[in-house]
Design brief:
By secondary structure, this protein is an alpha+beta fold. The protein has two domains: about 70 residues, Outer Surface Protein A, domain 3 (Alpha-Beta Complex); about 80 residues, Outer Surface Protein A, domain 3 (Alpha-Beta Complex). About 20% of the residues lie in helices and about 35% in strands. It has two helices and 13 strands, in the order E-E-E-E-E-E-H-E-E-E-E-E-E-H-E. The strands form four sheets. The chain has a four-stranded antiparallel sheet, covered by helices on one side. A hairpin with a 5-residue loop joins strand 11 and strand 12. The longest helix is centred in the middle third of the chain and has 22 residues.
Length: about 180
C-alpha cells in the first residue's frame, strides 16, 4: 500500500469541493482548480477529508495511488494558501523588472528577454535581483520558474546566472598556470 496514498487530505473550512465521476473541482479563497483523475483510483469525500483508494492492485493503480493523493493535496493547498517560488539573479548588470504584464530580463545577452506572464500567475520583483512567482497551481508556478531559470542557468566558475532561492551552486576551480 502506498504510504502517501493512504493518508487522507484534510479540507479546511474555507474550501469547498465538488466531486463528480473522478472530476474534482476545488474552490477556495484564492481561486478554483479542476482536475480529472484516472478511473483506476477512487477519490471520495468523507466528512472534512478527501480519501484516495485504488480499485485493484495492478502496477498502474499502485503508481497512480500516491500521485493522485499528492495532486489532491496540492490542489487544496493551492486554493487555500497558494504557492510561491523565489528566484535570485547573480551577476554584474543582471536584473529583472516588470513592464506591464511582461517580465523583462537583462541577463548578459545582447538583447533583453521578455517573458509573457499567464493570467493565473503573479510575478513580483521586490529588488532588481529577485523574482517572486506566485499562483494557485503548483505545477504552473514550477514550470514558469524553471523556464525563467533556463534562460541563464548558474555556471559553476563564478556562480553567475538565475538560481532558485537557497539553491547551492557547486563551484569549480578555474584554470591554473602551467609550466
Amino acid at each position: 500500500m502506498s504510504r502517501i496514498g493512504k493518508l487522507p487530505v484534510d479540507v479546511p473550512g474555507n474550501v469547498s469541493l465538488t466531486l463528480n465521476n473522478n472530476l474534482l473541482e476545488i474552490k477556495g479563497p484564492k481561486g478554483t482548480l479542476t482536475k480529472q483523475f484516472n478511473l483506476k483510483v477512487n477519490v471520495e469525500q468523507k466528512d472534512s477529508q478527501i480519501v484516495v483508494t485504488r480499485k485493484n492492485d495492478s502496477k498502474e493503480s499502485r503508481s497512480l495511488h500516491g500521485l493522485t493523493r499528492a495532486l489532491v493535496a496540492n490542489m487544496v493547498e493551492g486554493v487555500s494558501n497558494g504557492f510561491t517560488r523565489k528566484l535570485e539573479i547573480v551577476g554584474v548588470g543582471y536584473k529583472a523588472e516588470m513592464k506591464g504584464k511582461n517580465l523583462l530580463l537583462t541577463i548578459g545577452y545582447s538583447h533583453p528577454i521578455v517573458v509573457a506572464v499567464p493570467n493565473d500567475i503573479t510575478i513580483n520583483t521586490p529588488t532588481p535581483n529577485e523574482i517572486e512567482i506566485s499562483g494557485i497551481d503548483k505545477e504552473i508556478v514550477g514550470k514558469i520558474a524553471a523556464k525563467i531559470r533556463s534562460f541563464r542557468e548558474p555556471e559553476p566558475y563564478k556562480g553567475k546566472g538565475i538560481k532558485y532561492a537557497g539553491e547551492q551552486i557547486r563551484r569549480k576551480a578555474g584554470k591554473t598556470a602551467g609550466k
